[in-house]
Every structure is written in C-alpha cells, then in structure tokens.
Specification:
The protein is α/β, with parallel strands linked by helices and 136 residues long. It has one domain: YqgF/RNase H-like domain (Nucleotidyltransferase, domain 5, 2-Layer Sandwich), CATH 3.30.420. It contains five helices and five strands. Strands 3-2-1-4-5 form a five-stranded mixed β-sheet, sandwiched between helices. α3 packs across α5. It is globular. It starts with a strand and ends with a helix. The relative contact order is 0.23. Pfam families: RuvX. Its main location: cytoplasm. This is Putative pre-16S rRNA nuclease. Its EC number is 3.1.-.-.
Length: 136
C-alpha cells in the first residue's frame, strides 16, 4: 500500500512526515530548506510510492486564512504542476507548533534541543499526519 506524506510548509523550513506502508503510523521524516523542497520531493517520490500529500492549512482562531496562506497557495500550484497524479488535501494545522513544542517538553528534551526549529517543524508535520489518520 502506498504511503501518505504530510508537509508543514514554512517560508524558510518545511517539516515532512510519512506513514508506514499500512498507513497506520505517522513518523517524522525530515525538515528541508523550503527552497529545496520540490527537489527533495522529486527524489523521495522517485523511490517511494505515495498516494496522497497532505499540506497543513494555517488558520486564525476566527477560521480565516493565516498570512502564510499566500505562500502555501503558490507552493500548491507548483506541487500540482510537478506531481499532477498525486492528490493533495489540506489539513487544519492550528496549534501544531505549540503541540510539537509541548511534546518535546514531555519527552524530556533539554532546553537547547527544544530550540531546534527544524525539529519543531518535523514534529508539526507528524501531528498534521496523525490528525488526518485519526479522522479517517
């Protein structure tokens, strides 16, 4: 069975998470420089079969789009052009960064390790993927 890939898109860094082949477990894959994201995805998708790409949808508390949505929309157009055969779904990503940070505290990471923003992005992508899997 193909995997599901989740993206926590950021203007500088992008967190990526992936399911196992049975689409049961969400695991952090990596964080990449956003400028290198499409190249990374090209390499990854050449090696692994992915049936769905999830992209976080940042929203304000009043349910309106976040300021970063304009960048994500531009990325989504490039993604669709480069990988037209892989469907893309959006997943509400409100609070994922806070939840990621809290999970780092709960797992006992030291303060210096918690300042690693790349790790926060990867955990956020994992939370986006987990929320999608739970909703299914």
């Amino acid at each position: 069975m193909p995997r599901i890939l989740a993206i926590d898109y950021g203007t500088k860094r992008t967190g990526i998470a992936i399911t196992d082949e049975l689409q049961i477990i969400a695991s952090g894959l990596t964080t990449v420089n956003t400028k290198e994201l499409l190249d990374f995805l090209s390499d990854y998708l050449a090696k692994e079969e992915v049936s769905l790409i999830l992209v976080g949808e940042p929203k304000q508390m009043n349910n309106t789009a976040s300021e970063s949505e304009i960048y994500i929309e531009a990325f989504l157009k490039k993604l669709d052009k480069k990988f037209p055969n892989i469907p893309v779904e959006r997943v509400d990503e409100r609070f994922t960064s806070k939840m990621a940070f809290q999970s780092m505290i709960d797992s006992g990471l030291k303060k210096k390790q918690r300042k690693n923003k790349a790790l926060v992005d990867e955990i956020s992508a994992t939370l986006i993927l987990q929320s999608y899997l739970y909703s299914k």
